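User: Before I run my own analysis I want an independent prediction to cross-check against. Here's the chain; please return only the structure tokens and, at the end, one sentence I can use as a sanity check.
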Amino acid sequence: MRHITFLAALLLLQASASAQSAKARRDSLQAAIAAMRAELAVHDSAGSTASSIDARIRLAGLLKGKEAISLLQQAATLADSARDPGRGTAARSALMSEHRASGDLRKALDEAMRIIALNHDLRVMHLHETAKEVSAITDAHLHEHDSLRAAHQEALSLANKELGLAQKAIATREWMITAA
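Assistant: Structure tokens:
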């Protein structure tokens, strides 16, 4: 009988501890969510679009369902308006996962298609940046080439002038030698 009472007390204690740790986890999660909401408010009021997008994505990771989807849609819209395909891809990837988890496969597919388009835009953007860099390097090389060509022409002109003067001096000396 004592063993049964001890076992029952142990089970009650374990259940109580388990309930307390679950409550502690919920409280901790709620505190983290509150802190992230405050951080989001700070970024929104400061007008920091990139930070606002990132904060929405992080906060949505702690939430579930409609609230997470709403935050991720806001993040995707902000990224689109800021023309930030990298953050847009991150927001839409998380949004796609939320739609898939909620069972809305049509919306998940729509987001997947947007992600493909954003990745294409990102590649095009990188190609344009690379083209600008190549163009700047080419322009610098052409400018250097033109400068060297001009310096070469100037040196050649000076050398020709000096050669002409030397030839005149030689001709004058030859004339003086033959006249003498």
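Sanity check: The radius of gyration is 38 Å.
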